[in-house]
Automatic annotation (TrEMBL):
The keyword Oxidoreductase applies. The keyword Oxidoreductase applies. Belongs to the NADH dehydrogenase family. It holds the Pfam family Pyr_redox_2. It comes from Pseudonocardia thermophila. Transmembrane segments: none annotated. One of its GO terms (biological process) is aerobic electron transport chain. This is NADH dehydrogenase, FAD-containing subunit. Residues 4-284 form the FAD/NAD(P)-binding domain. One of its GO terms (molecular function) is NAD(P)H dehydrogenase (quinone) activity. InterPro entries: FAD/NAD-bd_sf (IPR036188), FAD/NAD-binding_dom (IPR023753), NADH-Q_oxidoreductase (IPR051169).
Length: 389
């Protein structure tokens, strides 16, 4: 029987890892498990919510002819002792090597009312629900976006540009874009002013209800629609399985993306606690998930074929932010993700952001065409013992 590699999750990191492995290995079985039939372009979900259409990307069509077996199913549990993935309403899937790429979801941070009353853009169904709500919203009503990070900024500016008849506000416990450099922050402030977005900085939201939010100190900010963008959280499956996780539920891995507690399991993307240059854990971002996917495919292929493994430190290059369709920011950063004084802003920044998104999408839709490398056979020792280093 061929060595079976199971990839859980078909986001950016899962799809890239599966495709790269199919390109490198000749005699393995690769199974890609995902809850939805399509690849979801998550970095554009704020655009979908604002009324723009995104093309369907069926996973089975993307992987047709590659040898990757795409299975649409929701993962409910992971039995790492028996090396079995438990699926909802489906046959369990056994694995020799597991690549865990289930990503992340909405983080409510324990704030009451978020689940019941707030919209979000952490998934395609959620973005479509917000889209429907915004389409039904009469002119003059208020949309309040909670969170001053990249997702909050992109959501607020996209909605404000698409619906100038609405009153859009942004509330954050710090300054919007406080991790940007001075040039980028000046441009962001100018765009927020141009789009007439009201900013409530240094304001802590303590509860959400159907009519807005409550803030620390007893304040109120009224809203007809509240959009919650205050970070992401991992799914509880990894922690419940017995895999070693950090305080955020991310799987603790070594320099090769391999679980430190279960060597036949690898983790990538938002689900992995991966150290970058300088030793800090990489933030949840497409910019982190893509190099993790490339690394894990190379590492697994090297281990299975008995070749040398190279694990240079992962690094960051830039932060890309869209500010509606007319403007954007490309903020250059150091390898350990500290901002540099260099930023491309405005229309050129928007084009750079679009180029990055389209480049990532091309890689996703051509999963086995990125590297014309030789496909190698699995070593016999690894066929019998997939955990060997």
């Amino acid at each position: 029987m061929n060595h079976r590699i199971v990839v859980l999750g078909a986001g950016y990191s899962g799809v890239l890892a599966a495709g790269r492995l199919a390109r490198r290995l000749a005699d393995v079985e690769i199974v890609l498990v995902n809850a939805e039939p399509d690849f979801v372009e998550r970095v554009r979900l704020h655009q979908l919510a604002a009324g723009q259409d995104l093309p369907a990307r069926p996973l089975r069509a993307m992987f047709a002819g590659t040898g990757v077996d795409v299975r649409q199913a929701r993962v409910t549990a992971l039995d790492v002792a028996r090396k079995v993935v438990v699926l909802q309403d489906g046959e369990p899937v056994e694995y020799d090597t597991l690549i865990y790429a289930l990503g992340s979801t909405l983080a409510d941070h324990g704030v009451p009312g978020v689940a019941e009353h707030a919209h979000h853009v952490a998934s395609r169904p959620a973005a479509l629900r917000l889209r429907s709500r915004l389409q039904d919203l009469p002119a003059g009503r208020t949309v309040l976006v909670v969170g001053g990070g990249l997702t909050g900024i992109e959501s607020a500016t996209e909605i404000a540009e698409a619906r100038p008849d609405l009153r859009v506000a942004l509330v954050t416990d710090r300054e919007p874009g406080d991790r940007l450099g001075a040039r980028a922050r000046r441009h962001l402030d100018a765009v927020l002013n141009r789009l007439h977005i009201t900013v409530h900085p240094h304001t802590q939201v303590t509860a959400v209800d159907a009519f807005g939010v409550s803030t620390a100190g007893g304040g109120r900010i009224p809203a007809d629609v509240t959009v919650w963008t205050v970070g992401f959280a991992t799914y509880p499956i990894a922690a419940a399985s017995g895999l070693q996780v950090d305080g955020d539920g991310r799987i603790v891995v070594d320099a090769s993306q391999r679980s430190v507690s279960h060597p036949d399991v690898y983790a990538i993307g938002d689900a992995a606690a991966t150290a970058a240059v300088g030793g800090e854990t990489m933030r949840m971002a497409c910019a982190a998930g893509v190099p993790m996917a490339q690394r894990v495919a190379d590492v697994v292929a090297a281990r299975l074929t008995g070749r040398e493994i190279a694990t240079p430190p992962l690094r960051f290059y830039a932060q890309c932010i869209s500010l509606g369709r007319r403007s954007g920011i490309l903020q250059l950063v150091t390898p350990d993700d500290r901002v540099l004084p260099i930023a491309v802003v405005g229309a050129v920044g928007a084009r750079m952001k679009e180029l990055v998104c389209r480049g990532a999408m091309w890689a996703i839709t051509h999963p086995t065409m990125l590297m014309p490398v030789r496909r190698r056979r699995v070593a016999l020792a690894e066929q019998a013992s997939p955990v060997a280093s």
